[in-house]
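Might you be able to check the backbone structure tokens below? Thank you kindly.
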Amino acid sequence: MARWRSLRASSALIGGLFAVSVVIAQYDPTLQYQSRGDRAEGLKTIPVGGLDVELLSVRIDTGQPEPPSGPGASRPWADTLRARFFLPESATVYLTVRQLRSRSTYYWLDYPEPADRPLALKVGVNDYGWPTQTVLQRLQNVRLEDLGAVMRVGRPGPALRERVLPVDLTDGTPALSANRYRFSLKTNGRANVTADVYSKDRKIYTRPANWEQAGSPITVLWDAQFCAGSPCLEGWYRLVLSGYFENNTPVSKEVEFYHRPRLGPTGGPR
């Protein structure tokens, strides 16, 4: 019994210290979301309202768990975090990297800053890297696998229908191929949601209907190795969410994304 009480006391102490570290980070002005040259980065408070269905992330999934970062993990953050993506045609793009789950605040990055600043991109594999020392290394509760990334095409903010480029988000070895994608979305109310992937007008994948909780990330994994028994060809595909909220309001969201099976060398901005 004495040992159990000691363990409970130790757990309470650790929890208290963690809460204190979160509060300190939350009110440290140097960590608040602000302009940092070419990007805006820092901690944001959770917004109220927004779209019924919000796209949080479209990341290239390597199929392997990300090496943990942060205190007590096997390794710390590398000096630079990179977002790599394939640009199939000339276009204006906007990157958002954000913490998928949070407490009262969460990590957020927008690039470029300001949003109307032109980017020197070329058709092909581009990447953008930023230092982790400024914010990420100072957040004890954020790891690489906690982050989502969206590279929007043509507009900086969310919309009912969006066109995006999947992102290889890494602070280590970059992905050489893109055979699986991890989509993260959330609804603003409890909803019964079905996810389908289309190649043009042909449905090639269905994630069966499931009840999703308001505000909790919905994860959809799509394996691009299977399109009618063979790997999917390069091109534009669509992720479509459908279903209904508890009040019978329909769920509707469409994300058009570009599948590039093989990623070549980077040739864009650093």
Summary: Residues 32-259 form one domain. The mean pLDDT is 86. Residues 43 and 106 are 5 Å apart (CA to CA).
